[in-house]
Amino acid sequence: TYRVTVTDNNGCTGQATFTASEIPSLSPVITGALEFCEGSGTTLDAGAGYINYTWSTGETSQTIQVNTAGNVGVLVVDSDGCSGSTNITTIEHLNPVVTIGGSTTYCIGGSTVLDAGSGYTSYTWSNSATAQTITISTPGLYSVDVIDTYGCAGSGSVSVDESTSLHPVITGNTSYCENGSTTLNAGSGFATYLWSDGS
């Protein structure tokens, strides 16, 4: 509080008082999700009550939309002309890329297991299953949608085929001379062979 006493040329005096207060520097707080998924972005809010906002992005509104990762700052000014600034760092998480594992073919009457991979918080298959793996016994196109720990979504798909029954053809001479032999051939392209003589 300040007081002044004044005197004029006639010796008359008078007094006045004045109270001044110091306003601390402004401390704006940026709110909003600082982490977001690829392609979604986030809304940042510098808070109400200021008459001027200047963001490092060049925008001048209370809230802004941010679609890329990095440092973001804001300078605010209130009605008293006081200012303050703050900055934050946003993080963009890439959406998961799902590669479905497992055999994409199975034999008639059999099945195959498809695996969407571990590490996701939820799985939703096109056949309504919600587990990491599913057992398939019907050919067709199968897809899965996943959500990771950051809430980011990804998907993958695979076509499953049913193999037909195998029909090997044995070739070779059907007769041979006494004390001789013949060579039989079951054809190439098979994984295993088991003959009736145990070979």
What does the model show?
- It is a single chain.
- This protein has 199 residues and is mainly beta.
- The protein is built from no helices and 14 strands.
- The protein has strands at residues 2-7, 13-18, 35-37, 42-45, 52-55, 63-66, 70-77, 83-93, 105-107, 112-115, 122-125, 133-136, 140-147, 153-163.
- Strands 3-8-7-5 form a four-stranded mixed beta sheet, with no helix packed on it. A four-stranded mixed beta sheet has the order 9-14-13-11, with no helix packed on it. A two-stranded antiparallel ribbon has the order 1-2.
- It is rod-shaped and about 155 Å long.
- It starts with a strand and ends in a 36-residue tail after the last strand.
N-to-C span: 110 Å
- Give the rounded overall mean pLDDT: 94
Shape: rod-shaped
Order of helices and strands: EEEEEEEEEEEEEE
The poorly predicted ranges are none
Strand content: 35-45%
Per DSSP, the total helix count is 0
- Tally the beta strands: 14
